[in-house]
Design a protein that fits this description.
Elements lengths: L5 H14 L22 H16 L7 E4 L5 E4 L8 E4 L10 E3 L9 E3 L29 E5 L3 E3 L7 E5 L5 E4 L9 E6 L5 E4 L5 E3 L13 E9 L5 E7 L3
Parallel strand pairs: 6-8, 7-9, 8-10, 9-11, 12-14
Antiparallel strand pairs: 1-2, 2-3, 4-5, 10-13, 13-14
Helix pairs in contact: 1-2
Length: 244
């Protein structure tokens, strides 16, 4: 067989082999280009042959994908290490704005649109406030503790549900915030020798059955609880605990 005919013969055999292999790569690159009429050399010819052989023997590890049908359709994704396909069946109808597509369980079951609205949604927001319904069971919950070393501090929304440790040995002034929502609870701990005085911020009021206005002394803890906030800018605080 003449060398000038070998490239075409190799290419024909390789293409037939690729067409008959269901696991062959979608596209194979050849390292050498041999033009018509050129004298074939064994090195580039065998280079192209080995590249095609590699495509046949080492299929692309990317998942197989199938798109078909109108009004829904099917996408089939195949994990090379899995024994069977997993069918991701698109719903026949479109969802609402903000909906997410959740698993229907594979097989012939279609995926479902799940609402993430502001109330009564199935999936909670991961970066915002959630309204929970039904019975929720949680594991152990550990509160957050922050430390303040200065002699003045104004409450912030992020302080709700936390404990603030004041370590100053000089008197400390803690100012309340009028925009904190009802139900906000903050624990105030005196760790240094400086007592922590609770000062009513603009638009706020504070109540205490014992007229407490500051911590009693070292290791004393005061509780601040927002009882009401009419209009969202008039927080009323109840002061309780180890006060003076």
């Amino acid at each position: 067989m003449a060398w000038s005919r070998i490239p075409g013969f190799v290419f024909l055999v390789a293409c037939l082999a690729l067409a008959g292999s269901s696991t062959a790569r979608a596209a194979c690159g050849l390292p050498n280009t041999i033009t018509n009429g050129s004298v074939a050399d064994a090195t580039p010819v065998m280079g192209d042959f080995n590249a095609l052989l590699d495509c046949i023997q080492n299929p692309d590890p990317s998942p197989n994908k199938q798109f078909s049908g109108l009004g829904g359709g099917i996408i089939t994704m195949q994990n090379p290490s899995a024994a069977t396909d997993y069918n991701f069946n698109l719903p026949a109808t479109s969802g609402n704005s903000g909906d997410v597509l959740t698993s229907g369980g594979g097989g012939s079951t279609a995926e479902t649109w799940t609402s993430t609205g502001t109330l009564g949604h199935t999936l909670p927001y991961l970066d915002g406030s959630n309204t929970w319904s039904g019975t929720q069971t949680f594991g152990p919950v550990v509160g957050t503790i922050s430390t303040q070393t200065g002699t003045s501090y104004t409450l912030a929304a992020a302080d709700c549900g936390t404990t603030i440790r004041f370590t100053s040995n000089s008197p400390v002034t803690l100012t309340t915030l009028n925009s904190l929502p009802p139900g906000c609870s903050v624990a105030v701990e005196q760790v240094g020798s400086g007592q922590v005085t609770i000062a009513a911020g603009a638009g706020t009021t504070q109540h205490s059955p014992h007229n407490y206005t500051k911590t009693y002394g070292l290791y004393a803890i005061l509780g601040l609880f927002v009882d009401l906030n009419t209009g969202g800018a008039a927080a009323e605080f109840i002061v309780s605990g180890d006060g003076a």
